[in-house]
Description:
Strands 1-3-2 form a 3-stranded mixed sheet. It has one domain. The N and C termini lie far apart (49 Å). It has 172 residues and is mainly α. A hairpin with a 4-residue loop joins strand 2 (71-74) and strand 3. It contains 10 helices and 3 strands.
Amino acid sequence: MLQQLLRPKRFKTKEDFFFEFFQNPEHSWIVNDRYIKSNFEEFFSLVPLDTLRQLYGQSDIWFIPSSGRFSCAIQPIRCSIVMIFPELVKMLRSFNSDDSCAVLAHELGHIFYKHSDRKLDVLEAQVEADKFAIDLGFSEQLESFLNTMPESLEKRVRLSYLTSRHFEAILE
């Protein structure tokens, strides 16, 4: 059973993806809460199928509830795990979960860019994961989320990057 869960997934359609995603026993906590499930469905409906294939092409990704702050992505052997902390669970249960989509996209960015395999400055990894979220179309949501964070150099750098990407898009 575990070997089957750890095999890379190949989906032909988004429906195939959703079926496999929600069938994963590690995601029963998502399926058991209709608001969280709905927000995951909304989020993944906005992610292009080709991007999902790239993300899941080498290993499975599990979303696991845990204690901590918001979330983080780790890549143990043969699968990737996005730890979902209580603050993000609360956001996922809310009516307006736009910020949670930005957080999920950001965490998938860490997996997409294989940050666990690379020696990268933490702030550089954060900005690169933000780039992934922005490229998926979550720039406004990311900005909204970052603006709720306490003031810090990291927050300012990430918002500056977001702003520069916004102006690049306008000038193109």
